[in-house]
Amino acid sequence: MEKPYLLHFATPGTRVSPFDVNMAYDAGWNAVIPYAGVGLADIADFTQDAIFSRGPKGVKRTGIFIGGRDAALAADMLDAARKAMVPPFEVSVFADPSGAYTTAAAMVAKVEQALERAHSAGLEGRAVVVFGGTGPVGMVAAVLAARAGARVTLPGHDGLARAAEAVSALKARFDVDIRPADASSDDAKHALLARAEVVLATAKAGVQVLGARHLEHAAALCVAADINAVPPAGVEGIGFMDDGGALAAASGKAVGVGPLAIGNLKYQVQQGLLRSMLSADKPLYLGFPDCLDEARRHAA
To answer: N- to C-terminal Cα distance for the chain?
Structure first.
């Protein structure tokens, strides 16, 4: 009898995400076992508990999924889990806290696709503003855009202080060049939009960060993308199903990407990576760069 495929789901929080449990079963894992309260100090022992109990054949049918809500902590836990492996007792590990890695990757890949289709251009050198960027999706999207060569600004809706703190943490952990800014007033948003070529709206569900009056100042805007699936839209004028449709803005050339287009790609990315863990000959260590690679493959 062959050993079952077991995915050990660790989160620093009080519960694992039902969304991710469903996704793992749908990807083909035979069992998904949840563990709450597993943090950075615990993940090495957790990993070694998982790898030594099943033998060389069983370990190939074992995986670890890291959840939570902190994008940087999940990256640190992924690194720590990898260092805890003792080959040949080594399993695949996938980090995706609150879906932030796969969602941010899908968002960036859809923006790249829209830029190419509508403007025959890429992200390199583009001025990107990430509204709602102090949350997990926004922070990861900012890092991915910066690594793609964009000039990234991360503004705070409540002023400069929290944005500056988030940018400092991202620079220290991921060695990226991102600029903080203030977006606490309409005038501040107008100043940011006057230069923005790409807007990423990653604020909380049901929060509109940019209205029509703001977009009147978006003189350089090429693409705006919004992950908010709860009305009102995060960016006024972007439809739930938009995938590169025209968006009213001062530039006259802007297109919008809505939450369904991003969400559909996010689903493909997470399913694809969960399935890759099942079939890989060698252990995989999947973080947000791998999510972007997967998203680009599906978008292409």
So the answer is: 40
The H-assigned helical ranges of 67-201 are 71-83, 100-119, 136-147, 160-174, 186-195
Distance (Å, rounded) from C-alpha 188 to C-alpha 191? 5
CA distances from 129 to 84, 153, 200, 210 (A): 38, 5, 6, 12
In the chain, the domains with their CATH numbers are 6-99+267-299 (3.40.50.10280), 103-262 (3.40.50.720)
CA distance 47 to 83: 10
Q: Using one digit for the tens of pLDDT, what is the confidence trace for 34-59?
A: 999 999 999 999 999 999 988 777 78
Query: Tokens in use for 99?
Result: 């879906």
Contact 284, 78 (CB under 8 A): no
Q: What is the mean pLDDT of the chain?
A: 96
CA 99 to chain centroid, in Å, comes to 6
DSSP state of 194: H
Residues sharing a CB contact under 8 Å with residue 162, sequence separation 6 or more, in sequence order: 134, 156
- The pTM is what? 0.96
Q: Is the pLDDT of residue 3 over 90?
A: no
